[in-house]
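Hi R.,

Here's the chain you asked about this morning:
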Amino acid sequence: MSRRSLLPAAILAVLVSVVILATRQDLTRFNPRIFTDLYRTPAVHSQESSTLFSDGRAMRPAPEGAVARGQEPLHYGPGLREMARAGRELKNPFPPTAENLARGRKVFESYCQHCHGYTGLGDGAVARAFKRFSFPVASPSVYAMPDGALFHVITFGHGLNLMPAHGALVSADDRWKVIDYLRTLQVRELVRLGNDPRRNEPATVDYGRELFAQNCASCHGEEGLTPTAGVPTLHLPPVISIAEDSYYMDIIANGRLIAGMPSWKTALTPSQRQSVLLYIRSWAWPTPRIVPYAVVKADPARGKALFLTHCIGCHGPEGAGGIGNMLNSPQFLSLASDDFLRRTISLGRHRTAMPAPYDLTEGDVNALIAYIRSWHAPAPAYDAVAALSAKASSSNGAKLFSAKCAACHGAKGEGLVGSSLSAPSFLAMADDRFLYNVITQGRPGTAMPAWRQLSAQEIADVISFIGTWRTSPAVQMTTALRRGNADHGAVLYQNNCRKCHGDLGAGDMGTQIGNPALLAQESDDFLWRTIAGGKTGTEMQGFLKRARDPLAPKDIDDLVAYLRRLQSHPPADGLKRNYSWASASDGKKVYVANCARCHGDQGEGGIGPGIGNTAFLQVASNGFLEGTVILGREGSMMPSFHDGLENGSAVPALSSDDIDNVVAYVRSFETHPPTAYREVDRSSDNASDGKALFLVNCARCHGADGRGNHGGKPGVYAPSLDPEFLKAVDDNFLEATIALGRPGTAMPTFGDGMNGKPGLAASDIQSIIAYLRSWEKHK
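And the predicted structure, written out as tokens:
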């Protein structure tokens, strides 16, 4: 071979060798590779990103069903339901021997201690730096979990408390052994807690704060403000304002399987659970200051703005009613005192959709009252009434009196529920201005309404008719003040007046003479003359000339001074007139026959409001109840039981005794509250309508099947509307939540008119609730 041909051959041999060496490593086998892309892939490191996959992750999860070498296949998946199933089915195959405990401790120290701490109290180095990683696995609640459930958590992790999966890091045997060791930490903690005397002592907020930090904060965040993803925010005054104690206690005691909330029934004593509840309640908005009988001076325009953002969703435009009661009825406005409105707004009404305020001040409450009052027609001026008195028609006044006054005062003014108006001694002191003031201002807290809706002519005619009972002109009352000893007057009152007029003048068989409105309308001279001379035709005797133990003029001065003290210092919770003469047992018969169909057998409410509600009865006087029965409520389904006919159906005209008795029966609910809860119409037709509304308005967050959204960002949470949740809440809670939303969360307002936006009518909201309730039977 020539030199010329050797050179190309040598070059070719070198190239072939380079190709063989570059494309294969095993030189003992013939395995030529021309295209090496599938053989030599670019290496990636752990946690690196990659453009090869759509999610940008280089590390790939194991294929479904793959089992690591040396591991037994586990026929469970992640999730809370699977955790519960594992808890029921799996048993720990390793007894807590010294050897197994030693191995479990080593595994715990290697994989668990940095978060859960040396003693399992959630105080490891990582947890101290990052509070979200703090979870006390030695707590009583974890002790109550079955071994199988703990094995599932170690294997798959727990998304609600940032617990990662350890199934690929720790062998199955070691997972069981670490559970053995964990049980020793839990027993040690139980012994420590068992020595805490507060476990069974009366509940306190401070102890609740401590328990919350130990047991709840790892998921719900410190003070319930910063929960982990998929966990509800507890520090929400709007929710606290409407949720019943029973709602919280049910969830704390029984947990929520679907939401991953453990049961604390065995981990915490009843007193401890109550302490946690008190701590949660401590986050509520402070109750606006309530000043009894305070005069409201506020801007109605400001009240209207507040009404549109807080009230319209339940009470409707301008108080026309809906989920909540009608507020713009003239009869309601004439009977509801400012105190009634103030207490209702400031305190809310538990077991109804009416929440306690969660962002209102005392000034806001007064502004709302001023706006509500703007719906009541202003009373005609006295000068306009006086100008018509000369031509007033007593015959027309007689008709008006019969229609609007006789039910309380009697057809001849002899007095029934209301006081006697035809008594000569009364008419001798009650001039036209006095009668005008009582008619137009009413007597707040009693059955005497403020008849502001009457025209000047109608008022003049009624005064003219009452004047026909006068036998002599009215005496001109002086405005001079009587000076007496109020302390001595208090003693005289107890000995001479209390039996009929009740403690603090709250009323009983006699008038509610401690009523600040009455005392503001009656001069010292009027009071003195009434005490001295009595009221003819009634039980009220004259104390100045009575046969036995008459009072001296100075004594009557002292009594007047005491009444003026009552006027300036009314009781903080209002005056409650005692109906000692009425029969609650007879009233029950009247109630069952006439009231239960709308208000429920126990006063729990139905198509009518819950008049057996204790929060309502705490603010509603007996006079308010009596006046409502007599007057009815125009524009609503509440008829007048004085008129006899209303809403096209026969309504019995109840006697004065019947009304007194039914009021006494309703008042008995205050000490024997209803055990039933008001329910919406749960018929299949209503539920069917609700399903369509739910899919349009609710399914986007709660899911078409109501399973909720427990993932996503912290604080973004739509609860599962499962039977566990529905068992803990009543229909009132659901109504309020749908209508008013949950400010500070993703739950919007759906009540029509809230924040000036169209929404769902009350009937629509109730249909949705009927649909939700249908799940209790079928899920």
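The longest strand covers residues 645-646.

Let me know if you need anything else.
M.
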